[in-house]
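Retro notes
What went well: the complex prediction finally ran end to end.
Inputs used:
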Amino acid sequence: MIPAHAIGVYRRNSWLLGWGGAFAVAIVVWLGADWWQWAVKAPKELSWHVEALGSCTSVRYCVTGFMKWMLGNEAYLFPWTFKEFTRAVAACIEMPYQFIRALLSTGFEIPLGNGEIWSIPAVSWIGLTIVTVLFAWRIKDGMLAVIVLLSFLCLVGFGQWESATVTLASIMVAVPIGIVFGVALGILGYRHKRFEQAIMPVLDLMQTVPIFAYLVPVLFMFGFGPVSAITATVIYAMPPMVRITILALHSVPFEIKEFGKMAGCNRRQITWRVLIPSAKPGLMVGVNQVIMLSLNMVIIASMIGAGGLGFDVLASLRRQAIGDGIEAGVAITLIAIVLDRLSQAWAVRGTAHHPSETPRNWFNQYRNTAYALVILLATTAAGFVVPFFSQWPETLELTTGQFWNDLVKWININFFDQLEAFKVFILLNILKPVKLFLLSLPWVVVLLFLAVAGLQLGGWRLAVLVVSLALFILITGQWEKAMITVYLCGISVVFASLIGMTVGVFASRNPVFKKIVIVSIDTLQTLPSFVYLLPVVMLFRVGDFSAMVAVVLYALPPAIRYTLYGIENIHESLVEAAKTSGCTRWQLLSKVQIRLAWPEIMLGVNQTVMFALSMLVITALVGTRDLGQEVYIALTKADVGRGLVAGLSVAFIAIITDRLISAAARRRKAALGL
Amino acid sequence: MARPEPILTCEHVWKIFGKNAERIFDGVPSTSEITSEDLRAASLIGAVREATIEVAEGEIFIIMGLSGSGKSTLLRCLSRLIEPTTGVITFEGENLLTKSEKEMIQIRRHKMGMVFQHFALMPHLTVLGNVAFPLEVQGIDRNSRHQKAREVIDLVGLSDRESYYPRELSGGQQQRVGIARSLAVEPKIWFLDEPFSALDPLIRREMQDEFLRIQSVLSKTIVFITHDFNEAIRLADRIAIMKDGAIIQVGTPEELVRTPADSYVEEFTNDLTKSKVFTARSVMAPKDPSLPSGGSVPDSIKIEEIAAEIVASEQPYDVVDAQGNIVGQLAREAVIDVLVGN
């Protein structure tokens, strides 16, 4: 038998051997670069000749061809053609959307037989505001009511009401669909282990493929318009609901499930009467997630026809008219904050007994709903007499657009040199060299390093996984763009992690600072990712640097949160032990806290990478040259194959990083016995 | 003493966890021949092994064992919440294991009630809603089920709390709701799975008294699980002691204390206050007519309750049975022996 410590030495040596070998190969390839061109420069997209077509084809052409075939008249989804199927789906989304939009925003116009049109106005803004404020007050407190009131007044005052109601209408269609499908899939996953195993990788992909990538096939199927926008929103917002449903159902106490059986519930009753109600607090977290993700989608969805506030932001970003964009961006943020707080308050709404016995009848049960209806009808009716009720007078509309434009002008006139110097310094000294280095790395060496890292951290399965994902990127001809993605993402993650960890460490030491930090990152996370682009573009214009700044800002919250969480979760007794051993504050931090919190911090870095990648794709709008740009171009050309291949490549980079870092964090945790 | 017909029996019941567990019985003439070595060799875990019990109508049958002894698994086999690997379970003369899913649902709806260790109350329903739930799933209309639910809530003394939600109640109150809920369908058999283990000692004592009071009103057939030997002694008509999935001994509390089957059972009985277990009948001597009598005591009374009186008396007491016949006598010395624990 080999003694335990000898195994340790053997292992360490074998890893040294592995890494050493990889380095040796790297040096050999580098020295022999002139002879082995094929090992250095990434190959062109792999394509093969198909006799039947008489031309070459490749992965992305196959995808595009498949899509075209599906939408032709030959593909049957028994008993309909695929086209009829998509049309049916479109109708199911279109009808409720048009109804809600008419109700909230445009009003109904019903043609009467004799050529006249009977028009019913949309719900009055005053009515909707009053009802929402009262609702907020009822489920939480006066504070929430004030927040709702101020937000709504802002929307109205800045003339965003109409766009906001259009946006709200699409959210109100997308969210219920997302919840229903999410819960349904979640229940199936809970009931059937196999189904869960099958659906998990799909969910992983749905969450890592950049949003742009599935805009393309959706656009292909449903055409430009609100239906496409809502479909894409549902696809984006649903995965967490599925996961949370499965998790929440699994965490219903075992005894409650047994009780359900003992009470003689059949399967349906156990699911709907026992499991779902008991899991409700968990499910509500999922509902909140669906709402927030749907709002995050608002701007992106407007690229394929969502309209509303998202369209306003996008249009102003394209015109570089920052002022207009900021107001619409703020409006989206306000809606996000209001919906977030309302749904959270609804989730934790205390169920307490009613002190007095009120007779149970129809009116008592639906009293509040009845009042709300009366208010809505009355204010809308008042709109016929007093125009103020139906529309906020334009003369009273405020606008800050000019102010923002002036501010940008002023900053650019007065601080141009400083900002430019900072930007150029970072560009020349950090961004450029890293980019050149990564682009010059031979692909063989990159694959080798991935393989060794995979082997060491998670065994041969992991190594095979990461190498084959990287190979996909290679053979679809995306290598160079992928490297640019890695470079931008990598630098942003380094910056975000450094800033995040520092802030996290300081926050763990100072309770007041901590409170401020937590509120700020909570707010940052409710902002739709697009909103980050506006101020950055204002200050630094387009380019890699702006992209990096936006990505760093967006990816900061998880780095802070996990660091803080990791340090605070260290057991009090360990900190006390260190203190009684005579550690200085710095020693305590460097020798105890950071070390023990390291697995958590690594998970934070992992999340930062995920956030950075999702933001990076969006920064394609400000002119990067990476995979994101590729997806964006595919979107404008409605090229399904190109979009999907590039999108999958981004997803694969995310999955490679995620699997490697998670494996490392797990090993570390196990080593620490946590 | 002839016991009434058993209402629930289980014979040679096994529950084995692991892959292809049922194969271990292939070609074995009698299941009792399987040993722990056989199980270990097949890397299986025998949660319940060769369990055979009979529960008579109206008795409190307690299954006592430490954690991991398989007592909860056995209880769940009795209601088929867990499917036994092999064996026969009869309820009211019919084999439960051959019942279809639908028939089981009907049996559970109308004939079984269960109380859980951690209460298992539904957080979104009020006390009334929780108690009425088993009736609701049967499809009983609102008024009748609420009326029935109020009756049992009244029985456990929570009438003023019926519109409260579980999290607004203390642990003891929550378990009262659990008890009321399990009684709402008027079950033929009442399962209690460590109902008082999650409660503070003082509350536990109070709930045990409450349990005995309710039982004196309803006279249910009860299978009760506990890991607390004192609780078992206090409440049980008969006790089954389990260890490593097997039943070691079944008997009345007194039988267990008097003739423990092995050292494991004896270990439990050592710390016991014997005067709480022994009855006058079990320590009495034959009647010696030559001695004058100091008084008389019923034969089923616990020594604890009469000790002071007898010790203070010069003469032995007569022990009389339910018909008033003198069946023996109880001397001061015998009582003192019990009190000091010999």
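What we learned: The mean pLDDT of chain B is 88.
What to try next: split runs per interface for comparison.
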